[in-house]
Amino acid sequence: MRVLFNSRAKHDYLSDALTLLSGWTREGEQIRRTLVIDDTQHAALTERVKVVADALHLRPEISRRADSTQIRVGHGSGDPLTEGEVLLAARIEDAYRAVTEA
């Protein structure tokens, strides 16, 4: 069964979900995370994120800078964050743990 949310309840639901994702910061209608990982971990993370993002039909921005990987999720075009984008951030956290614990 699918639960319908009005726009206010949906916003609160997403805000609550974001508070559970430590390390993610909100910038307008995007969320961002910087991870300190090496090149091998970056490659493994990128591959895992690609699989999940393709399944969700989303395109996160992933870039490499010095010894860190920066990830942005969201449109940035004034569209509000969606459940799928918050779900993608949670799956990125799962992938991050997997590549750093291996």
UniProtKB/TrEMBL annotation:
Q: Which UniProt keywords apply?
A: Lyase
Q: InterPro entries, per this entry?
A: PCD_sf (IPR036428), Pterin_deHydtase (IPR001533)
Broad class of enzyme this protein falls into: lyase
The catalytic activity, as recorded, is: (4aS,6R)-4a-hydroxy-L-erythro-5,6,7,8-tetrahydrobiopterin = (6R)-L-erythro-6,7-dihydrobiopterin + H2O
At the top level, the lineage of the source is: Bacteria
Q: Does the keyword Signal apply?
A: no
Q: Where are the transmembrane segments?
A: none
Recorded GO MF terms: 4-alpha-hydroxytetrahydrobiopterin dehydratase activity
Q: Which Gene3D superfamilies match?
A: Transcriptional coactivator/pterin dehydratase
Query: What EC number(s) does its UniProt record assign?
Result: 4.2.1.96
Which family does this protein fall into? Answer: Belongs to the pterin-4-alpha-carbinolamine dehydratase family.
Name of the protein in its database record? Putative pterin-4-alpha-carbinolamine dehydratase
Native organism is Micromonospora trifolii
